[in-house]
Amino acid sequence: MTGRRAALGWLAALPLLAAGCATPGAPPAPLPVSFEASRWAGRFAVTMTEPGAEPRVERASGRFVIESRSGATLLELFSPLGQTLATASLQGGRAELLTSEGRRYEAASAEDLTEQVFGWRMPVGDLPRWLRGRLANPSETSEGRPAAGTERGWAIRLDDWRPAGPARLNLDWPAAPNGRLEINLKLIVDDAS
Fold first, then answer.
1. Nearest-CA neighbor of 89 among 99, 78, 77, 97?
2. How would residue 17 be classed by pLDDT, with cut points 50, 70 and 90?
3. How far apart are alpha carbons 167 and 181 in whole angstroms?
């Protein structure tokens, strides 16, 4: 894979919400005060659209694992069949991406790294916070839980709340369409611990 196809393949492993993959859950339970997940595993789906006279649309999906402990974040992406696509790690002001082909990319931040590899900035380091249901200035559900917000140019929607946090995370970039490249990333959390 090269260029955007490699980027799409890498993102495909991100925890995303694939249309029709979610099943209705039980009514939301109150969040435990003492519980905070540090590991999430699930499915992702990404759609990249280049608007134009003949819009170009690329889609990918797969599985992901995100771990966030002691200021470090690890993101592993897998194909739908379980092959490792890429591993990204953020720690101590450094970001690194290792692809299944053995290519290694390094940068000062996750945003710089994803811009270098994909051509656009993805706040990978913010995913654990968002998966915990923490958004800056969010709109809230009738139960008082965060529902949606905008951060770092991304429109974020949290759905299907469970004790560990939202089970679905929907991200759109840019938050306000600008007639250029548009990204939709959906994550479905199957397990949070």
1. 97
2. very low
3. 27
Domains of the chain: 3-192 (2.50.20.10)
Looking at per-residue confidence, does 61 or 21 come out higher? Answer: 61
Distances in whole angstroms, Cα of residue 6 to Cα of each of 116, 133, 151, 155: 12, 29, 25, 24
Q: Token match 């249309």: residue? A: 19
Residue 98 has pLDDT above 90, yes or no: yes
pLDDT of amino acid 178: 77
The answer on pLDDT for 159 being more than 50 is: yes
DSSP string, 31-93: PPSS----EEEEEEEEEEEE-SSS-EEEEEEEEEEEEEETTEEEEEEE-TTS-EEEEEEEETT
d(CA 161, CA 29): 8
Distance CA 100, CA 80 (A): 14
